[in-house]
Amino acid sequence: MQVSKRVILTFPASLAGTPVTYRLVKDYNLVMNILRAKVIPKDEGRLVLELSGEKKDIEAGLIFLKEKGVSIEALAKDIHLDEESCVHCGFCTAVCFQDALSMNPETWKLEFNREKCVLCEQCVDICPMGAIQIKF
Amino acid sequence: MKSFDEINERIKQGKAVVLTAEEVIPLAKEKGIKEVAEKVDVVTTATFGPMCSSGVFLNFGHSDPPIKMNRVLLNDVPAYAGLAAVDVYLGASALSEKEGAFYGGGHVIEELVAKKRIMLRAMGCKTDCYPLEHIETTITIDTINQAILCNPRNVYQNYAAATNSSQRTLYTYMGSLLPRFGNVAYSTSGQLSPLINDPEYRTIGIGTRIFLGGGTGYIIGEGTQHNPGQLKDQNGVPLGPAGTLCVKGDLKQMSARYLRGARIKGYGVSLFVGIGIPIPILDEAMAEAVTISDERIYTSIYDYGIPRRSRPSYGRINYHQLRSGYIKLDDKTVPTNPVSSYAMAREIAAILKDWISNGDFFLIQPVQQLPKDVLLKPMDQNI
Ligand code: SF4
Ligand code: SF4
Fold first, then answer.
1. How far apart are CA A23 and CA A12, in angstroms?
2. Which of A11, A13, A16, A131 could lock A82 by a disulfide, CB 3.0 to 4.6 Å apart?
3. What is the pLDDT along chain B (383 residues), one digit of tens a residue?
4. Cα B54 vs. chain centroid, distance in angstroms?
């Protein structure tokens, strides 16, 4: 069964310059779509990927990365909501098509459902308080 | 019938019955208006949202040698200096000359309240009594003389909801309006909204003491664009933007929790202002007014896709429907979203209730009513 999975990879500095992601394509038959990348020379690198392929190949590919020392996170973790500075105005809920950001109808406070977030970043510069940030 | 004096006496004795404008609704349903009029002394109302027509008067104290400032920048945001030597007015929506729409007067005001250091740069016009031409220093709210929040237009009595018929996303002061009626944005705190609970301005007037930005402030007049003549429905609620208030308070007493600089994408900078207004229940008519609930408060929906002063209206909708998350617009189900904070409005109404219940806050009878006969004029474009 073909599936796709979005992940955030953090590469240790020691892996800089080694073609680990290339191996995913070649050895595990995965289609790789790079959503975001940030590599600081001589420091750790961050990569947000969408991997598509057979479920078992994706799993094997991720195990390979782990063994290489790459840490793997689910994608939603990268949106950071600063609850201290959020004023629950609702501006951000207008642009979140995934319903990841919504107002609780009892408390009228903002709720962020990470599971639903696809990191489209629409909300980031909409928040008047700068309370939503992408962690990179 | 109760008078302001009688209510203040009860507050002094710690006997006043104070409820928020939300809490009084179920009481009225259960016990009736008559009982509310007899038992309840004060109902608190509140709002917390972006209010661009806000700003502060500042007096920096005199330098040595003295300067008569005519161009002033606070963290690179220009303030109006056409006043006496070291007096300025900093408007909430003034933009930074360095960072443009990312930083502005609203942020400087929030940082002042938070006691942060602000960079002051001023140019002067050299005179015999003011020889200095240029000054650069830092200030905090504690090192300057007065810091007076003075907002020429806050607390709109109802505000129209916004939608967008056009083909592209519009970035407005009502937030993002998605193309082809993608959403409806609304901004009033509905049943908690101050002027909706006193639609005839019987108790809210010039001199009324209020919660302003976390401190106490005063209503000093009607606000700009005050439009008491707005059409009203059978519930006495104006069908769109109507009355407004001009408020004033000592910024030094306020808190950065209730004055927040804001950056609204594609629009600019503003200030979220928290305001709470107490309403004394003088008689049954006031009891009736404060028990209004979201189901009975209607507003109009305007199409911001038509960039004209008179935007087409897509009918009327009540706040209960708006708050449900979806409304029907010409058979289409459209999601709704607020652009002012009901949670913060609730918090402010509760704080004001505590202040009054604890005998820390007394009511002031207006020294003059707000005008009810002024007309709102469009601009006279005559060249
Ligand atoms: S990044 Fe996109 S999906 Fe995630 S919360 Fe923001 S708007 Fe919603
Ligand atoms: S736009 Fe920002 S402040 Fe407003 S509810 Fe969303 S995260 Fe909170």
1. 17
2. A131
3. 899 999 999 999 999 999 999 999 999 999 999 999 999 999 999 999 999 999 999 999 999 999 999 999 999 999 999 999 999 999 999 999 999 899 999 999 999 999 999 999 999 999 999 999 999 999 999 999 999 999 999 999 999 999 999 999 999 999 999 999 999 999 999 999 999 999 999 999 999 999 999 999 999 999 999 999 998 998 889 988 999 999 999 999 999 999 999 999 999 999 999 999 999 999 999 999 999 999 999 999 999 998 888 888 888 999 999 999 999 998 899 999 999 999 999 999 999 999 999 999 999 999 999 999 998 999 999 99
4. 8
This model of the complex carries an ipTM of 0.94
Contacts of B128 (CB under 8 A, 6+ apart): none
Cβ pair A92, A123 in contact under 8 A: yes
Q: Which of A91, A103, A130 comes nearest B175 by C-beta?
A: A91
Give how far B3 is from chain A: nearest CA, Å: 35
Residue B124: which domain range?
61-144
Inter-chain CB proximity A89 and B272 less than 8 Å = yes
Q: How many domains does chain B have?
A: 2
CB pairs under 8 A between A and B: 66
- The answer to whether residue A125 neighbours chain B at the CB level (below 8 Å) is yes
CATH 3.30.70.20 range(s) for chain A read: 82-134
Do B265 and B117 fall into the same domain? no
CA of A100 to the centre of ligand 1 (A): 6
Q: Is B293 inside any structural domain?
A: yes
- Is residue A131 in contact with ligand 2, taking CB distance under 6 Å? yes
Cβ pair B340:A89 closer than 8 A: yes
- Respond yes or no: is residue B52 known to be catalytic: no
Claim to verify: residue B357 and residue B334 sit in the same structural domain: yes
For ligand 2, atom 8: residue with the closest CA: A86
Same-domain check for residues B116 and B236: no
Domain boundary residue among B124, B144, B164? B144
Residues B125, B271, single domain; the answer is no
CA A128–ligand 2 middle distance (angstroms):
7
Alpha-carbon distance values, B195 to B250, B275, B286, B368 (Å): 23, 12, 12, 16
Kind and range of the H or E element at A5?
strand A2-11
Prediction pTM value: 0.87
Q: Work out whether strand B100-104 and strand A110-112 pair parallel, antiparallel, or are unpaired.
A: unpaired
Which candidate from A90, A109, A125 shows the least CB-CB separation from B265? A125
Fold for A2-77, please state it. Answer: Alpha-Beta Plaits (3.30.70)
Q: Are residues B347 and B321 in the same domain?
A: yes
